[in-house]
Amino acid sequence: MNRTGNYFDVEMKKAHLNWGTEGASRTKKRNPFEVYIPISMEYAKLYEIKTGEIFNCSSSDGYFQGPLKATGSQGNANEYGKNFYKDGDLRSLGYWLKDRLKAKIGDMVRIEFVDEHSILLTLIRQ
Length: 126
What we know:
Helices cover about 15% and strands about 30% of the residues. With about 130 residues, the protein is α+β, with helices and mostly antiparallel strands. The chain has a 7-stranded mixed β-sheet. It is globular and about 40 Å long.
């Protein structure tokens, strides 16, 4: 499917906004600004978002800029990405969502494909 012009919305849950500090597997102190945006299997498959794929990305307010990487794996052959974060920087999304925009659990993030390899992120408050 051609991605250009399409979008999907993701509800931000506690685990997404607090990835750096939540979970029993956290054995070392992590930064509270470590945040990721999950990708459901439905949308990963529909838009063929592959593990390791990197998108040019910006936020609708212009604050967040940089390469957004699909990481993790899901699907029968583990070929689809499971979450997005800024390539090489686990904190950038957190600085944008938590510090600048004060995102809360239940807010939505819209992932809009500007073209095949570019994404625009927009916070939608609930």
